[in-house]
Automatic annotation (TrEMBL):
Domain of life where this protein originates: Bacteria
Organism from which the protein derives: Ktedonospora formicarum
Protein name in UniProt: BFN domain-containing protein
Gene Ontology molecular-function annotations: nuclease activity
Residues that span the membrane, as ranges: none
Length: 174
């Protein structure tokens, strides 16, 4: 497994699609996961250190886990099947190891709140990740773009696409 951090949450202004970009802690490897507005908002709010007057869903889940005496150990992005990512919450519940199925976007939103490590299975990175040469910018893509990029060894399609995205640094930005 590869430990990763949230590099940024971005939006494609033309399509309004949001993407969370994970970066390997020890390498120039990236994973792009397209996510919904609510989860992008939840991740961006936490990354920016903002608080809401009432708990968001992921704040509620964090509080429930804590009040029940459990502790988040990590999250794992565990699989990629038919362009759908799968994740697990890994908890310690009174010394008992518990894993709970989760959407990656929810798991990431919870991980940034609990300061929990984010891991990605190597097989997921091999199928869905991007490795950059020094000086290149990370670029999300569709599988078609990723395949074309792999085939000709050129990441220009990734660079062009990332330049069309905007960082979500304002919560209500649409």
């Amino acid at each position: 497994m590869v430990e990763m951090t949230v590099e940024s949450v971005r939006i494609n202004l033309a399509t309004q699609q949001r993407v969370v970009i994970l970066k390997a802690s020890q390498q120039e490897r990236y994973l792009f996961i397209w996510i919904a507005y609510a989860e992008a908002y939840a991740i961006a709010v936490e990354l920016q250190g903002a608080t809401s007057q009432r708990p968001l869903t992921h704040d509620l889940l964090k509080n429930v886990i804590s009040e029940l005496g459990a502790h988040m150990e990590s999250i794992v992005i565990s699989d990629l099947v038919d362009e759908i990512f799968y994740a697990r919450l890994v908890l310690d519940v009174a010394g008992r190891h518990v894993e709970i199925d989760s959407r990656p976007s929810d798991a990431i939103a919870l991980a940034v709140r609990t300061k929990t490590p984010i891991f990605v299975e190597e097989s997921v990175l091999e199928r869905g990740g991007v490795t950059l040469e020094s000086g290149e910018e990370p670029q999300p893509s569709t599988d078609k773009d990723a395949q074309a990029s792999e085939d000709d060894g050129n990441l220009d399609a990734y660079r062009d696409f990332i330049n069309s995205l905007d960082v979500l640094d304002e919560f209500g930005k649409d």
